[in-house]
Amino acid sequence: MSSTRVALVTGANKGLGFAITRDLCRRFPGDVVLTARDEARGLAAVQQLQAEGLSPRFHQLDVTDLQSIRAVRDFLSKEYGGLDVLVNNAGVAFQFGDPTPIAIQAEVTMKTNFLGTRDVCTELLPLIKSQGRVVNMSSGWGFKALESCSPELQQKLRSETITEKELVGLMNKFVEDTKNGVQRKEGWPDDNIYGVTKIGITALSRIQARKLSEQRGGDKILLNACCPGWVRTDMGGPKAYKSLEEGIETPMYLALLPSDAEGPHGQFVHEKKVAKWQFMPQFYPKL
Ligand code: NAP
User: pLDDT tens, 158-173?
Assistant: First the structure.
């Protein structure tokens, strides 16, 4: 087993995940694993980085497929005895105006963005080594969604004591509610499915950080959620105000927090600063 340090990025064949992987290859003192759900797209991305003189490794990873996640877990255990940096970047979003029924949009988006990321964490967080760093890609859209929730739901989702099981129950309930056409009645926003999945990511990050502090407090692991801002990618579209290079600044800052850093931990970080659970309209000028 190698004593080399290792960083892994999910959804790394394009967009922010690709740019984060490239920057990790340049700046992280260890191996970098580029993962993608589609092997051909992943290998093409690896080749692109190789052409730039960089040397990422590749592993297939579909965050919605438990077998695929467990294969990555076994690969990391066998080859590195753990994991030093995990960037949970993989995500999907339907474009505004997409005619796909709301219930299907909710199911698909939740499956990848929240449930998939949670499954990756369940399998890989136990591998995180001391002084490890975990970055969960959330979004300011989560704040907008949270503010549109009923006061009862907001209280539950903002709670400092909500458990992972309760959070998963709420996210699954959202999908069920959209299937039954009662999401608005049940206190959810009905026009911001993506945002609800990202509420889940931010709340999950708070829960996971709390657990790490309780169970492995001495290990100085730092786990945070972040928003990269509005970035020109396939998801963000051409009108977004940030370039890829600007968009990766906050996730890279969190992935490479120095070994003696005491924080941030369990926070939502935006523009490299801890942000409150509130929407930031200035970053979404079209709204
Ligand atoms: P993107 O260009 O659409 O890239 C998304 C990546 O996720 C792709 O590599 C995609 O793979 C991968 N992916 C999707 N489903 C997956 C699955 N089941 N398993 C593994 N990988 C999967 O999007 P992006 O803008 O770079 O976004 C990256 C992250 O940042 C997302 O979590 C997004 O929500 C978040 N974010 C983006 C913005 C923005 O303005 N762009 C703002 C806030 C937050 P395929 O190529 O195979 O589809």
Answer: 999 999 999 999 999 9
